[in-house]
Write a structure and sequence with these properties.
Blueprint lengths: L11 E5 L3 H13 L3 E5 L2 H10 L4 E4 L8 H10 L8 E5 L5 H9 L3 E4 L4 H12 L6
Parallel strand pairs: 1-2, 1-3, 3-4, 4-5
Length: 134
C-alpha cells in the first residue's frame, strides 16, 4: 500500500454554530463521510481551535448571540496562517446585501439550512483535497 502524501493533512472541519442540534447533526454526518469534526458554539470558542489545530475547512453560522460568524471569517482572511482555509457559511436566514458582499469579498461558499448536506460534503471534498500551503 502506498504511503499517504504528506501534503494532505487529515481532513478536519471546524463547525461553529450556536445551535447544539446543528453541531450534533453535522458531527455525525461529516464523521460518516470520513471527516474529523471539531465544534465551537461561538467565535470566541473557535479562535483557539484555529490556532491550535490543523483545520482543513471551517463551517460558520452567520448570526450567533455574541459575535457573528462573519467576524470570524474576516479574522481568518486577515491572518496569514488562516487565509487559505476554505470557509463555508451555513445559515438558515436570508442574508443582507452587506453580508452577501462580505462573504463574496472573503471568498466563502454559502449553503442554506436545512439544504441537503450532500451538497456541502461534495464542496468540502473538493476544497479539502487540495494541497494546503505551508
Amino acid at each position: 500500500m502506498a504511503e499517504p502524501d504528506d501534503r494532505y493533512e487529515a481532513r478536519t472541519v471546524l463547525v461553529v454554530d450556536d445551535q447544539p442540534q446543528i453541531l450534533r447533526t453535522l458531527t455525525r454526518f461529516l464523521g460518516s463521510k470520513g471527516y474529523r469534526v471539531e465544534t465551537a458554539t461561538s467565535v470566541d470558542e473557535a479562535l483557539p481551535l484555529l490556532d491550535q489545530r490543523h483545520i482543513s475547512a471551517v463551517i460558520l453560522d452567520v448570526r450567533m448571540p455574541d459575535r457573528s460568524g462573519l467576524e470570524l471569517l474576516a479574522h481568518m482572511r486577515e491572518d496569514a496562517n488562516l487565509r487559505h482555509v476554505p470557509a463555508v457559511i451555513l445559515t438558515g436566514v436570508v442574508l443582507t446585501p452587506e453580508e452577501q458582499a462580505l462573504i463574496a469579498r472573503h471568498k466563502a461558499q454559502v449553503f442554506f439550512k436545512p439544504k441537503s448536506y450532500e451538497q456541502l460534503t461534495h464542496y468540502l471534498d473538493r476544497v479539502t483535497r487540495q494541497p494546503q500551503p505551508r
